Amino acid sequence: MQKNLLLLFSIIIIFTASAQTPDDALRTAWFTQNGTARNMAVGGVMGSLGGDITANHINPAGIGLYKTKELVLSPGFNFNNNSFNFRGTDTTDKKNAFQYGASGIILGWTNHNNPKGWKSDAFALSVNQLASYNNHIQYKGFNNFSSFSEQYLEELVRDRADTNAALSNYIFGSSLAFRTYLIDTIRGPGGSVAGYQSLVPISTGVNQVYNEDTKGGYHEIAIGFARNMQDRLYIGGSITVPIVSYSRDFYYSETDATNNPNNDFAYFKYHEVNKSNGVGVGAKLGFIYKPKEFWRLGFAIHTPQLITFKDEIRSWMETNTENYAHTIKESSDNLNSGNPGTRSYTIQTPLRLIASASYVFREIMNTKKQRAFISADVEFVNYGGARFRPLNAQNDIAKNYYTAANDGVKNYLKSNFNFRLGGELKFDPWMFRLGIAYYGSPYADDYLKAYRLIPSTGIGYRNHGMFIDVTYAYTIINDVNFPYRLNDKPNTFATQTGNRQQFAVTLGFKL
């Protein structure tokens, strides 16, 4: 019996550390296409084009166009320019960071005297940064509708927690609020506890400040193989290994907007540091077919990736309730023997389907005589298909927790389409490129306006077995950010606009 109680207590600590939200699932689902500088310049199209190492991460059949060996390196840089509006107050911020695109090696070879018609094969080993998490988000505003503290109040009421549980069972959130008197008891007859209340004076309003610094990235190693039948049909597949690192340094505060020294609230501050690292496996399969000399049609499927994560969290809170209890500080370290909270689980990323068509002008076989191409991709992503899974499938408490988290994903996210269009003009040895891409909203609620629109341009130079490509892409951002989530009233959120500017260079060498 004692062992079961200890197990239950440890689970409560783990799963109340920081509730799994749809945003956690979206981090490995909603991202714009990244690859070589050439691929980015033409809008990220690679479903039917091929002949670029980025194909190993989009449609692996595209590496089947190679019959020689090639080494590719793709460094780049991001400039994030964020603009937020939170309850009528505008805030801007910037964060710059290094980023890289598809890099690796391709080995292509010709099959002589193959009676089955397979003219050539190709193998590719590459790495690509699918998403960068390096960013700084900051906004503030006046709120007389809701408070960050109400999520703790909801949790204690939902669990029917007694004061002992409130003091000890929620050491990364509600227990900190209770111990610092941000959340206090409501006394009934005879001094009994009749419930809980927040000491934040919501009706007269508070000034809220949200400040978040994030680092890390979503990286993918791809091992691909493709075959070429009579230079008409290309089929290929890749085994992918996603590697995810994410860290978040989060500060939040609410301050009494009235400056009333006698309403039992001056301010509270919350600080949270969490780290998340994951590794997994997935697969990508596709084909490219040339029905006529100048046309290429492509289709690819990206199976859901299974990524196993381990999270760590620490949190601190300081509350000033003026003459009621003055200033009190508390931390999860004090309540957890100096250790962080940990949690292990698996995320299943959404299924992706890509259909594509390309038209290549002039000669196909002799690439030096090609003069231009135009290509388009349509991508379907089932964002609402992302799922959390416990590592211990026999643990009913964990299963129930993640079932609730998955219900949130299904209610919050939906399927949508992404569109990419790009082209190239070639004046040997120079190439000039343009592209545009549109990524639709992943949110089920149409009231939450979100999209990414990315015009791009670039130039390339190819000569004597060496090539260099340079690209500039400008991402127009429209999104939302929730400072906290409540169940008993509509959630307040900040609207995000702004842009991300990307500079990318690719160096390639024929081996």
Name some characteristics of this structure.
mainly beta, elongated, single chain, Porin, 511 residues, 14-stranded antiparallel β-barrel, two-stranded antiparallel ribbon
Can you walk me through this structure?
The chain contains 9 helices and 23 strands. Helix content is 14%, strand content 54%. The radius of gyration is 27 Å and the shape is elongated. The strands form 2 sheets. Strands 1-4-5-9-10-11-12-16-17-19-20-21-22-23 form a 14-stranded antiparallel β-barrel. With 511 residues, the protein is mainly β. The N terminus is likely disordered. A hairpin with a 7-residue loop joins strand 16 and strand 17. The termini are far apart. It has a single domain, classed as Porin, CATH 2.40.160.
Question: Short description, anyone?
Answer:
With 511 residues, the protein is mainly beta.
Layout of secondary structure:
Blueprint: H1 2-15, H2 22-26, H3 37-41, H4 55-58, E1 69-73, E2 75-86, E3 89-100, E4 103-110, E5 118-132, E6 135-143, H5 150-158, H6 163-168, H7 174-179, E7 183-187, E8 193-198, E9 206-229, E10 233-256, E11 267-289, E12 295-302, E13 306-320, E14 327-331, H8 332-335, E15 341-348, E16 352-362, E17 370-382, E18 387-390, H9 396-412, E19 415-427, E20 430-439, E21 451-463, E22 466-481, E23 494-510
Antiparallel strand pairs: 1-4, 1-23, 2-3, 2-23, 4-5, 5-9, 6-9, 7-8, 9-10, 10-11, 11-12, 11-13, 12-16, 13-14, 13-15, 15-18, 16-17, 17-19, 19-20, 20-21, 21-22, 22-23
